[in-house]
Amino acid sequence: MINWQPLVELINANESFLITSHCRADCDAIGSELGLALALEALGKRAQIVNGDEVPEHITFMDPEGRVQELDHVPLETLRQHQVFIVVDTSAWGQLGPMADVLRGFAGERAVIDHHVSEDDFNAQVFKDSNAEATGRLILELIEELGVELTPEMAAPLFAAIATDTGWFRFSSVKEPAFKALAKLVAAGASPPDTFSKLYEQHSLARLHLRGRILDHVKSECDGRLMWTYVSRQDFQETGAQITDTEDAINMQLTVAGTEAAALFVELEPEVTKISLRARGDFDVRAIAAQFGGGGHRAAAGITYQGPREEAQTAVLDALRAGME
Ligand SMILES: [Mn+2]
Fold it and tell me: Which residues form the DDH domain (predicted)?
């Protein structure tokens, strides 16, 4: 449990707040920023949200008022005028992008609200619970500590934050506090079906057709322990789908019983292949990715391979097969 009192005092003692989160923002980042900014404004404070890059297209629905600004479009002087700088959903300099320099040069008070284990020194007061399933739930706790009444405008983005950071309530991080928080957010106006639809039911027909190709190309090896598939440039051309339409496609291979590792080879250019790797159980795909200059986590890693797709497939599949022995 976080002791919020120092942050409540910091907020009560100041009038003007700058809020940021990590680049390539997700729903937890945006939801936490918006929930916090709206709560501060409910107290009569000023809040400005500025990120190092733009809000990803597929989650712009979370910010109907366009409150989240991109650093490129904001005069630097306006940022220095704030009294307190609050970073949410990250504690890593490397994830702040160009906002890292703004934080380094910031003269006022600093605070971090986060649930990630890693912790760089931001020279800030840290409000962290690494057992929390989402920063959005921590923001809700803070809102309650501040005595601010939850509005539908706060509840909707905070609901999306918790829903997505928990894989829609199925990760091992999901405990009773998550459902208690969700109940409060729904009571305040958050709509689970509306959120789900805006996140996952707005895709193009081309994306569905591309998915059909990806499924059609699936191969199974090593007695079903290794699954792999690919997308060629021809697949993109013929379906009209975009590179971003390959997102999440790899996870479909993990739905087959007995799969331990999965690979997706995406032909970006004739000589550039993007490779996504996933693992279930003990298999470590980060170790495979590292052999080709890639990186990631044990269960999810990626490689940008400088070479034709067939060559990438031969090389990386050989490494995967060797890892299965
Ligand atoms: Mn998060």
Answer: 17-162
